[in-house]
């Protein structure tokens, strides 16, 4: 319906929600209907631009949207009803928040006049979500919907990204009440102006330090991935010939097979990465936040290093580790400026010092290369499974993971050469993330290989989504590293609680093969390493089928290296018996 | 160290809860908190007094700045500033105490704003330590009720906190 004599359309609130998503370029939304959203679902039904994907649990909807964002850099969208729908989404929202992932979550709400009256399926979603969102909105007038949606996407995707919730009371979507619809092209918010470049003086000072460094390390995190800065990072690192280490969130920001890559750092970081950090005289931190899983004890952190810290969020700088040169700005723009400065400088990186530094790093690399031992038994090591995955997919697949030992093995042994391909819940550590994340990626990258590395514990936290995979033909490959126990919990119990395995043993596991078959998928059981490669190749050759590989792995394996609690970066367990 | 942080924010529903939520979520301390609209009805001015070392206070101002509803943040304690707090205090005032309380009140330049045969209600304006001093000068025996507004503050000189 048009306003007479104009091209301005009259739309109901429900139609505006859907139209605004279309105008934002959204193709898929992930959700689950319910009472407060029935008008919106009816509007969805009557158009074809925005396609809705019906999950089996709202948490999965948020993870699908989140994974889409991690793979593309654009905000994913979830749609959930009020009350339990909204609370079920909270874990997914918090997951995105901790990893700074752009996402817009639209939650239904009871009618405005019922808010505060403990109405059926009422929950204070603004209050509940507040600590885990970048911002949230409540729709008070239907005509505000277009501008709120535009603002939500702007806030979610700009600056340090994050999830934004829009709470929509049912009466804001009444189909019979129509308002003029115009989607705003621009957003102007006096209280929100993300930084677009770094301070040139600071960048110059930092570049001087880089060119004088004798034992430098470039340490980068998720900010390089979400900030689309991996090309610039790679160029600068090669220009300087500095070693690069990535955080768990930063893997793929620098090519994993490059000689200059020294592995992940931190609690389960590589020996050479942690040693190099400890002995460095300069750390260039880019889009990383010196989180406790990286630094170990802050007072013992990298005693001889000066710290240059580039981050889009000023609050991340000098939060746990004092920066000597703070640079607030987008990683991509700041790194580009550094590249130009390095190229234009008369001074060259100190080649002699770097040569000696690389010798030292290579020596560390050799001293503790392979990291895991295979024994004569047929029992597979989980690391072997990941190495095989890397081989079978040529390091090109999207790999999602759940949380625990398998996540660390995937991070350590899969060689990510491209950004946005490693999709895991780093900050919140959300078990149940892996399968819906793989689905969200596969839906948007149907021609790519998508593997979900999981364990028999994590997969059961969202296993109902096998049904969604059936409905939408999502042929992801699930690699379940089955050690019949909550491996990471068990590892800590082995190391700190004299192997008292309190509640970390999984009794009465389902027969996964039969289970996935009942959902219409293909199941495989692999018990021997000698069968692994053939089975995995067969699984990936089945392009249009979801394949669940139930892979029996050594239940006694631990993840190493592992930093010693309250120690410095270099204090590590290297195996069950060796310590640095 | 005690800091007085002034925040200019959108006068929107939920804005205050974001600020208060931030303090509890990040384990920052709130000594006092006041908030009211400004001459521009779309803006509120919030003043919070907090205690923390430099690192904590730096984090507080940075985290406040990140809130979407927050327009500007300033740590008044970084420069010359004026702070004021209003206290209303209801006191037992009978017999010879009546004159004594009146005298103390005059010394502190308080005003008696309500009177009954047995009570005085006194209004006192000043920096928080002056209000504290008044309370301790009276002694707890005569105090019936105390209400304090919390601190508000403004920078000295020509510096202003505005859009």
TrEMBL record, chain A:
Top-rank lineage group of the source organism: Bacteria
Domain (Thiamine pyrophosphate enzyme N-terminal TPP-binding) ranges: 12-125
UniProt entry keywords in alphabetical sequence: Amino-acid biosynthesis, Branched-chain amino acid biosynthesis, FAD, Flavoprotein, Magnesium, Metal-binding, Thiamine pyrophosphate, Transferase
Catalysed reactions, semicolon-separated: 2 pyruvate + H(+) = (2S)-2-acetolactate + CO2
GO biological process per UniProt: isoleucine biosynthetic process; L-valine biosynthetic process
Pathway linked to the protein: Amino-acid biosynthesis; L-valine biosynthesis; L-valine from pyruvate: step 1/4; Amino-acid biosynthesis; L-isoleucine biosynthesis; L-isoleucine from 2-oxobutanoate: step 1/4
CDD domains: TPP_AHAS, TPP_PYR_POX_like
Enzyme Commission designation: 2.2.1.6
Gene3D superfamilies: 3.40.50.970, TPP-binding domain
Top EC class, one word: transferase
Residue ranges of every copy of the Thiamine pyrophosphate enzyme TPP-binding domain listed in the record: 402-550
Pfam families, per the entry: TPP_enzyme_C, TPP_enzyme_M, TPP_enzyme_N
Domain Thiamine pyrophosphate enzyme central: 203-337
Cofactor(s) needed for function: Mg(2+); thiamine diphosphate
GO CC, alphabetical: acetolactate synthase complex
One GO MF term attached to the UniProt entry: thiamine pyrophosphate binding
Cofactor note: Binds 1 Mg(2+) ion per subunit.
InterPro entries, per the entry: Acetolactate_synth_lsu, AHAS_TPP, DHS-like_NAD/FAD-binding_dom, THDP-binding, Thiamin_PyroP_enz_cen_dom, Thiamin_PyroP_enz_TPP-bd_dom, TPP_enz, TPP_enzyme_TPP-bd
Family, similarity comment: Belongs to the TPP enzyme family.
Protein name in the entry: Acetolactate synthase
Top-level taxonomy: Bacteria, Pseudomonadati, Pseudomonadota, Gammaproteobacteria, Oceanospirillales
UniProtKB/TrEMBL annotation, chain B:
Domain called ACT: residue spans: 4-78
GO biological process, one term: L-valine biosynthetic process
PROSITE patterns in the cross-refs: ACT
Protein's pathway: Amino-acid biosynthesis; L-valine biosynthesis; L-valine from pyruvate: step 1/4; Amino-acid biosynthesis; L-isoleucine biosynthesis; L-isoleucine from 2-oxobutanoate: step 1/4
EC category name: transferase
One of the Pfam families matching this protein, by short name: ACT_AHAS_ss
Reaction equations catalysed: 2 pyruvate + H(+) = (2S)-2-acetolactate + CO2
GO cellular component, one term: cytosol
Entry keywords, A to Z: Amino-acid biosynthesis, Branched-chain amino acid biosynthesis, Transferase
Annotated EC: 2.2.1.6
Alphabetized GO MF terms: acetolactate synthase activity; acetolactate synthase regulator activity
Keyword Amino-acid biosynthesis: yes
Superkingdom to which the source organism belongs: Bacteria
Record text on subunit structure and interactions: Dimer of large and small chains.
UniProt cross-references to NCBIfam families, sorted A to Z: acolac_sm, PRK11895.1
Biological function: Catalyzes the conversion of 2 pyruvate molecules into acetolactate in the first common step of the biosynthetic pathway of the branched-amino acids such as leucine, isoleucine, and valine.
Family: Belongs to the acetolactate synthase small subunit family.
UniProt xrefs under PANTHER family: ACETOLACTATE SYNTHASE SMALL SUBUNIT (PTHR30239), ACETOLACTATE SYNTHASE SMALL SUBUNIT 1, CHLOROPLASTIC (PTHR30239:SF0)
Protein's recorded name: Acetolactate synthase small subunit
Lineage of source species: Bacteria, Pseudomonadati, Pseudomonadota, Gammaproteobacteria, Oceanospirillales
């Amino acid at each position: 319906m048009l306003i007479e004599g104009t091209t301005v359309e009259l739309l109901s609130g429900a139609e505006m929600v859907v139209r605004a998503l279309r105008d934002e370029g959204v193709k898929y939304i992930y959700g689950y209907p319910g009472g407060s959203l029935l008008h919106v679902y009816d509007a969805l039904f009557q158009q074809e631009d925005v396609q809705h994907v019906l999950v089996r649990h709202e948490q999965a909807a948020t993870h699908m949207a989140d994974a889409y964002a991690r793979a593309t850099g654009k905000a994913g969208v979830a749609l959930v009803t009020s009350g339990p729908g909204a609370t079920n989404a909270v874990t997914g929202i918090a997951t995105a928040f901790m990893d700074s992932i752009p996402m817009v979550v639209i939650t239904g709400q009871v009618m405005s006049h019922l808010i505060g009256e403990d109405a059926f399926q009422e929950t204070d979603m603004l209050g509940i979500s507040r600590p885990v969102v970048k911002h949230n909105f409540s729709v008070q007038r239907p005509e505000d919907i277009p501008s709120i949606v535009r603002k939500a996407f702007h806030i979610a995707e700009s600056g340090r990204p994050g999830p934004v919730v829009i709470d929509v009371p049912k009466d804001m979507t009444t189909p019979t009440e129509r308002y003029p619809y115009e989607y705003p092209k621009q957003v102007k918010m006096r209280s929100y102006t993300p930084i677009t470049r770094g301070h040139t003086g600071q960048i110059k000072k930092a570049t001087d330090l880089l060119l004088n460094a004798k034992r430098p390390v470039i340490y980068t995190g998720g900010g390089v991935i979400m900030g689309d800065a991996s090309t610039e990072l790679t160029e600068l690192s090669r220009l300087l010939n500095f070693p690069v280490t990535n955080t768990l969130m930063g893997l793929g920001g620098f090519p994993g097979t490059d000689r200059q890559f020294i592995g992940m750092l931190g609690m389960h970081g590589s020996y050479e990465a942690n040693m190099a950090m400890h002995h460095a005289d300069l750390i260039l931190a880019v889009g990383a936040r010196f989180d406790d899983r990286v630094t170990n004890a802050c007072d013992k952190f990298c005693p001889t290093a000066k710290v240059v810290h580039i981050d889009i969020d000023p609050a991340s700088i000098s939060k746990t580790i004092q920066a000597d040169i703070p640079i607030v700005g987008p990683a991509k723009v700041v790194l580009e400026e550094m590249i130009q400065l390095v190229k234009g400088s008369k001074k060259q990186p100190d080649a002699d010092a770097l040569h000696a530094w690389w010798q030292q790093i290579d020596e560390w690399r050799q001293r503790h290369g392979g990291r895991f031992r295979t024994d004569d038994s047929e029992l597979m090591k989980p690391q072997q499974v990941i190495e095989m995955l890397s081989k079978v997919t040529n390091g090109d697949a999207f790999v999602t993971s759940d949380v625990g030992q398998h996540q660390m093995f995937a991070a350590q042994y899969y060689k990510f050469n491209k950004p946005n391909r490693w999709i895991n819940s780093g900050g919140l550590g959300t078990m149940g993330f892996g399968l819906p994340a793989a689905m969200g990626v596969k839906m948007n990258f149907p021609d790519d290989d998508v593997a979900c590395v999981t364990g028999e514990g994590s997969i059961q936290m969202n296993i109902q989504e096998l049904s969604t995979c059936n409905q939408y033909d999502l042929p992801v490959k699930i690699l379940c590293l089955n050690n019949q126990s909550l491996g990471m919990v068990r590892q800590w119990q082995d190391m700190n609680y004299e192997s008292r395995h309190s509640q970390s043993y999984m009794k009465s596991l389902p027969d996964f093969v039969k289970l996935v078959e009942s959902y219409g998928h293909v199941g495989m059981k692999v018990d021997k390493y000698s069968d692994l490669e053939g089975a995995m190749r067969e699984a990936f050759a089945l392009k249009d089928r979801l394949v669940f590989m139930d892979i029996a792995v050594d239940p006694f394996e631990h993840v190493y290296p592992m930093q010693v609690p309250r120690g410095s970066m270099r204090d590590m367990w290297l195996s069950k018996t060796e310590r640095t | 160290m005690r800091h007085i942080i002034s925040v200019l924010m959108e006068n929107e529903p939920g804005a205050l809860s974001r600020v208060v939520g931030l303090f509890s979520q990040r384990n920052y301390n709130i000594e006092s908190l006041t908030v009211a609209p400004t001459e521009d009805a779309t803006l509120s001015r919030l003043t919070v007094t907090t205690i923390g070392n430099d690192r904590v206070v730096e984090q507080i101002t940075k985290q406040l700045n990140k809130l979407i509803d927050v327009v500007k943040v300033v740590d008044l304690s970084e420069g010359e500033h004026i702070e004021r707090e209003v206290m209303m205090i209801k006191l037992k005032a009978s017999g010879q105490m009546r004159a004594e309380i009146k005298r103390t009140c005059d010394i502190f330049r308080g005003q008696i704003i309500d009177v009954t045969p047995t009570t005085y209600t006194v209004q006192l304006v000043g920096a928080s330590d002056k209000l504290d001093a008044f309370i301790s000068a009276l002694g707890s025996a005569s105090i019936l009720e105390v209400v304090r507004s919390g601190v508000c503050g403004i920078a000295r000189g020509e510096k202003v906190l505005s859009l």
